Q: What sequence folds into this?
């Protein structure tokens, strides 16, 4: 098993023919961590200290590399991706570990996957944190085609679209599979926010004050009965996930509403 201070090579399982890598750390009520687009479980969660913080709070941490990312398999067809498909990977991971349900914390793409879990598999989720998402990110995928085009471009210098250039640079820094990531980006469908009307779970929506992709997280919280929202001052989409104030808000929420 991995340790909070330095995970080993981790684990993997077969999710309907796709190898999914994951870490399983600590003991206690389980919380599943779902990372953002072009990131991975170690960059998004372990590096910024989330494993340690949650394990110290008495939680069992399960963090996966979503398909197309990290150490997991990387299909290059859009049909092999999408929030609904990725949510099924999470459900199969819970099955693999013998867990009936878990709290879920997702960031950016991971937040969109957590939304899909809430509506498609409500029995497998207890409480959910939707980080780095807002109405625009959940209802669609802003600039998704421009970002996909940027990921498929011959080189970074050829990209003029600001969001596309930013995501291409981040993907290259992570040594990501550009074809697989483009397929992931093209696979994100529109989402009817009315599907959130009947969500019975405790939900916390978190975003940075300066996150131009998300705007006000309160707008998304208003679409979910009883949901709460927190805005992290002075943080944008790339800097919120590592902010201690984000972790503190999540830990406080899970202490109240989690398993």
A:
């Amino acid at each position: 098993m991995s340790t909070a201070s330095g995970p080993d090579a981790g684990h993997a399982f077969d999710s309907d023919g796709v190898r999914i890598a994951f870490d399983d750390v600590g003991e206690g009520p389980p919380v599943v961590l779902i990372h953002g687009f072009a990131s991975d479980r170690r960059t998004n969660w372990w590096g910024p200290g989330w494993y340690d913080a949650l394990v110290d709070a008495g939680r069992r941490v399960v963090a996966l590399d979503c398909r197309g990312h990290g150490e997991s398999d990387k299909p290059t067809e859009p049909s092999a991706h999408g929030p609904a498909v990725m949510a099924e990977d999470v459900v199969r991971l819970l099955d693999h570990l013998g867990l009936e349900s878990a709290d879920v914390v997702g960031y950016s793409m991971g937040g969109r996957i957590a939304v899909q879990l809430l509506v498609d598999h409500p029995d497998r989720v207890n409480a959910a944190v939707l980080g780095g998402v807002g109405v625009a990110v959940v209802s669609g995928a802003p600039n998704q085609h421009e970002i996909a085009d940027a990921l498929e471009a011959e080189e970074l210098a050829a990209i003029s679209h600001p969001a596309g250039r930013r995501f291409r640079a981040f993907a290259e820094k992570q040594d990501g599979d550009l074809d697989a990531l483009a397929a992931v980006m093209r696979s994100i469908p529109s989402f009817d926010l009315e599907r959130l009307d009947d969500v019975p779970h405790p939900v916390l929506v978190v975003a940075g004050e300066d996150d131009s992709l998300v705007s006000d997280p309160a707008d998304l919280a208003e679409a979910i009965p009883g949901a709460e929202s927190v805005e992290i001052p002075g943080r944008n989409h790339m800097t919120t996930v590592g902010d201690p104030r984000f972790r503190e808000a999540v830990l406080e929420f899970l202490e109240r509403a989690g398993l």
Observations:
- The mean pLDDT is 94.
- The CA atoms of residues 59 and 85 lie 27 Å apart.
- The chain has ten helices and eight strands.
